[in-house]
């Protein structure tokens, strides 16, 4: 289902709305933006359903470059074509880039302090928690998936084991598991 085929469906009101929405999303996404993107785009703005978000996020992950940048361009393009993709990208990067440059100057001044190093290490656990919480919240989208929830969760577990436990590079895991799922889904949809 495309954005245009859904009557009375929320959508960005304008390119300006798109720009500021992605600026706001980016400003909330310190340490990882997946949880914030899901909450803002699916739950608050309702520009995508949970199923659409999972599909678009999957596409964004297999494209080269940062996942959330790919996602913002996909969503911008969905509603306003190439102009929307560029505006969403600008919204995602402009203000955060300025802030990161300012923070880099401050960090260079205080990087040697043990409290700064400890604070940055502690944020790793927070980021992992955000990713896990978002994954759990999006599990319901698998009910409608052609693989079915049990098989999709099995593939997710295999991916976790391959990358997280056996340390197989994602470069090898993605074509095998992703390609296998792609073939399986293509056959089921026929």
Structure, described:
The chain is an all-alpha fold and 190 residues long. 76% of the residues lie in helices and 0% in strands.
- First-to-last CA distance: 18 Å
What is the number of strand segments?
0
State the helix count: 7
Q: Percentage of helical residues?
A: over 70%
Mean pLDDT: 89
Low-confidence blocks of residues: none
Sketch the topology as an H/E string, one letter per element.
Answer: HHHHHHH
Shape: globular
Oligomer: single chain
Overall SS class: mainly alpha
Question: Using only CA atoms, what is the Rg?
Answer: 19 Å
Give the biggest sheet. Answer: none
Strand content: under 5%
Q: What does this entry show, briefly?
A:
The protein is mostly helical. It has helices at residues 15-28, 34-44, 50-62, 67-110, 114-138, 149-165, 170-189.
What is the topological layout?
Layout: H1 15-28, H2 34-44, H3 50-62, H4 67-110, H5 114-138, H6 149-165, H7 170-189
Helix pairs in contact: 1-4, 3-4, 6-7
Key words describing this protein structure:
globular, 190 residues, mainly alpha
